[in-house]
From TrEMBL:
GO terms for molecular function: adenosylhomocysteine nucleosidase activity; methylthioadenosine nucleosidase activity. It comes from the Bacteria. Residues 18-178 form the Nucleoside phosphorylase domain. GO terms for biological process: L-methionine salvage from S-adenosylmethionine; nucleoside metabolic process. One of its GO terms (cellular component) is cytosol. It comes from Helicobacter marmotae. InterPro entries: Nucleoside_phosphorylase_d, Nucleoside_phosphorylase_sf. This is Purine-nucleoside phosphorylase.
Length: 201
């Protein structure tokens, strides 16, 4: 199954689950409880922490963090796991062979980073992208023992112009993802086929 956040980021071949950590977790859980879901491919836009990333780049991701700035500054801790990985990129080369899709870790938060120094801190931590929903998506997939991956297209850099840049590039992002619709849908099929090897099952 292919899913997306919705709220302006809709795709004809994807089901909307809601924006942010909470809405997406609730929405995806409801789908998993009501329907037979044998794979989850989450698609959407992402901000880039580093200028080494190009606007319009497509990333194939199976690892997400839920980290706030205070954690990186050693001013807070969390008793829960703040980094999760579905591991599907290691299941089979057929899932990850496309050379146009890069790899990277995604951080999720209900807030958008607009400070370049904060973005630099995430970059130094090895985190490439920012997307509000992906951590919740992997967490729900983990709970229901469903193989999961993300396909994210970079819409903006995480700096003071993040929102304006996102708005300027949002149509392009949706067009880029639509252009790869067949590949994305095939990813869902491949994940379902390999579900027996999924580390969560």
């Amino acid at each position: 199954m292919v899913v997306c956040a919705g709220n302006g980021e809709h795709f004809t071949f994807a089901k909307s689950i809601g924006v942010g950590l909470c809405e997406s977790a609730i929405g995806l859980s409801q789908i998993c409880l009501k329907e037979y879901v044998d794979s989850i491919v989450f698609i959407g836009s992402a901000g880039a922490y580093s200028r080494d990333v190009q606007i319009g780049d497509i990333y194939l991701c199976d690892r997400a963090t839920q980290i706030e700035l205070s954690f990186l500054e050693d001013k807070s801790y969390t008793p829960i796991d703040n980094c999760i990985q579905s591991g599907v990129l290691a299941l089979d080369e057929s899932v990850s062979h496309e050379t146009f899709a890069k790899r990277g870790i995604v951080n999720s938060s209900n807030y958008i980073t607009t400070d370049k120094n904060v973005a630099l801190a995430f970059t130094k931590a090895g985190i490439v992208l920012e997307n509000m929903e992906f951590f919740s998506v992997i967490k729900v997939a983990q709970y229901f023992h469903i193989p999961c991956i993300g396909v994210l297209c970079v819409s903006n850099y995480c700096d003071k112009n993040a929102h304006e840049e996102f708005m300027q590039n949002h149509t392009m992002v949706k067009q880029r993802l639509m252009a790869h619709a067949a590949w994305i849908q095939n990813l869902s099929y491949l994940l379902a086929k390999k579900a027996g090897d999924n580390p969560y099952v």
